[in-house]
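Archive maintenance. Older records in this collection stored only the sequence; we are now back-filling the structure field for every entry so that each record is complete. The fields below show one back-filled record exactly as it appears after the update. Entries are processed alphabetically, and ATP synthase subunit a is next in the queue.

ARCHIVE ENTRY
Title: ATP synthase subunit a
Organism field: Lactobacillus kullabergensis
Length field: 237
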Amino acid sequence: MEQSFVFKFLGLTFDLSGIIGSTLMAAVVLFVCIWLSRKVEMKPNKKQNIMEYLIDFTDGIVKDNVSDVDARKHLSLYAFVLFIYIWFMNQLGLFLEVKAGDNIFVKSPTADPVTTMSFAMMTLLLSFTFGMQKFGTGGYWRNYAEPVSFLFPINMIEEVTNFLTLSLRLYGNIYAGEVLLTLIGNSFAPSFGVITLVLAAPLAMIWQGFSVFIGSIQAYVFVTLSMVYVGKKVTKE
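Back-filled structure field:
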C-alpha cells in the first residue's frame, strides 16, 4: 500500500512528501512571480499583463468580501500569495509523483489534511488579529455574545466548523483526484492488457484536465471563504 514517507525528530512526526512538495512549490511560485514582474513598464508587456491580471483577480475577491478599507490594504498580498501558492500545490500531484517502493516522496501537499489545516489556521488566526485590532480584545469577544449571551458557545462552535470545512473541503477534493488517477494508472490500465492500457491513456488525460479545473476552483473557493471569514470579524453585525 502506498503511503507518504514520514520520519520522527524530537518526538515529532514529519511528512517528508509534504515538506518536499510545499518547498518545491514555494520555489516555483517565487520564480514565477519574479519572472512575470521583471522589467515592469508603463505599457505592460504580456508577462506583466498576466501578473496584473492575477493581482486584480485576487484584489477583487478581497473587495467583494471585506468591507473594512484598512483590512483590505493588508489582505491584498495575502490573498494573492495564498491563491497562487495553493493553485500550484493542487496541480503538483497531477503531473509529478515520485515514489520509492511503497513510499511517496513527492505529491500534492494539499492532498494532506495537515497542510490544508495549516492554511485554515493561518486564516483563522488572521481573522482573530484583525477583529481584535478593530474592536479591541474585549469588544471582539463580546461580539460572540450578540445579540444574546447564550449564543456565545454556539458562535464558538461555528469557529471550529469553519476551520474544519475550510480545510477539509480542499483536502478532500485534491486527495480524491489523486486517488482516482492512481486507480486509473495502477489498476485499470494493466487490468486487461493492451485494451485497457489504450483506454486508460485518454481517460487519464481527461481526468487530469478536469482535476486542473477542480484545483483552480478549490484555490478560488479557499481564498474567497478566507476573505469572508476575515470580513465577518471586522464588521459588526
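Update note: The chain has a mean pLDDT of 81. The chain is about 75% helix and 5% strand.
Entry marked complete.
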